[in-house]
Amino acid sequence: MNSSIRLQPVIMAGGSGTRLWPLSRAGYPKQFLVLAGNQSLFQQSVLRLQGLGAEDIKLDAPLVVGNDEHRFLVLDQLRELRCDPAAVLLEPVGRNTAPAMTLAALQALQDDADPVLVVTPADQTVTDAAAFSAAVQQAVRMAADGTIVILGITPDRAETGYGYIRAEGSAVAQFVEKPDAATAQRYVDEGGYYWNSGMFVLRASSWMAALERFRPDIAAACRVAFASRKTDDRFVRPGREEFAAVPSESVDYAVMEHCPGSGIALRMVPLAAGWNDLGAWDAVWQVADKDAQGNAAAGDAIIEDSRNTLVHATSRLVGVVGLDDVVVVETPDAVLVSRRECSQDVKKIVSRLDGQQRGEHTAHRKVHRPWGWYDSIDAGARFQVKRIMVKPGASLSLQMHHHRAEHWIVVSGTAEVTCGDKVMLLSENQSTYIPLGETHRLRNPGRLPLELIEVQSGSYLGEDDIVRFEDTYGRN
Asked: How many Å apart are CA 272 and CA 468, to the nearest integer?
């Protein structure tokens, strides 16, 4: 085993996934969604990478690169898999994929190591795990000598939503932008063209050398941000101001497109493993199980006299009649209806929501927090009703509100309530009152989830009316 190749999986879990709105939101993007089965896309990525070890390949625990605001989603979903990461690198601001990969490479180069990195986005799906492992292991062995390897997807149709790679044998000859329909068909007919998967296999030092050659400004700025990092358990936090100064650029634009003809070895391994990047609702329909008329349904949906239609119901019954090539996505606070061929344009709706500063752009009605979640089930003038779940052993911050009072009714589990200088235990069907301006805290001391109904009343009910005095999660 002394001659084995050390392999460091890297999962890129940033991004907002706006094209799968309204299911995907900025606060809960698509990589953390369960679109099929019982595991999220992020969890599927983790499990795929766990199958890459071999007699000559020593597999390390994964590195995860993600947004700071999603850090507890990452940890919770890793914990469900009983996966202990090597580190979770937290980007204070989004700077695209080249800086994200650079953070991972700098972390991997610690302790005089130089592993082969397998870098994969967290929001893709693969149906043939064995074919995926075989192709990636081939790429790992090629990358061990310093070669940069990209996984190219063997196209099964003319697709205008992907970038393409032109290959001559295993050598990458050219990167091609997203083509129009006629050009995409020509690529499929001619052969030698592959979809760009966004998955790369290369030594950490190979990435840094290529980046310093083509984008030394990104390399230097990332080194400064990484040098000012702070470590908190598994979290590695680059300096906020320093990372904000890093130029934003993709891996392809920063490095890969410059490699052909530069003397840097860039090769491609074909991947035929049922890959899909789920970049739009049309892609979700493509990979879904369908009935004889080509319809796909998730949740409580009834489809009649329709063809090639996707219905995704989250919180209620959705019935459709007489639809062809349509996407219908229902959530508690928003519904999307679109022709499948236009599903890439959902981002235009998200942009308008953002411009209007509407909350449906960033968060669901059900909002996840480090301690659990809350669901805003009703609201009116001067009142709001929430359903709250607190994980076993978790607690909210010690806090107070200037503008609202709260009533808490325990539905299940046990609540430890701090209200001023009093601490009390409440069980099912018991309740308490938190006066306006009173310091208070809610904690779950039990082994089962705590659920309660909270009724807020007052002149202002916004989430920013919270003064935190103590917080387990560093949000003071």
From this structure: 52
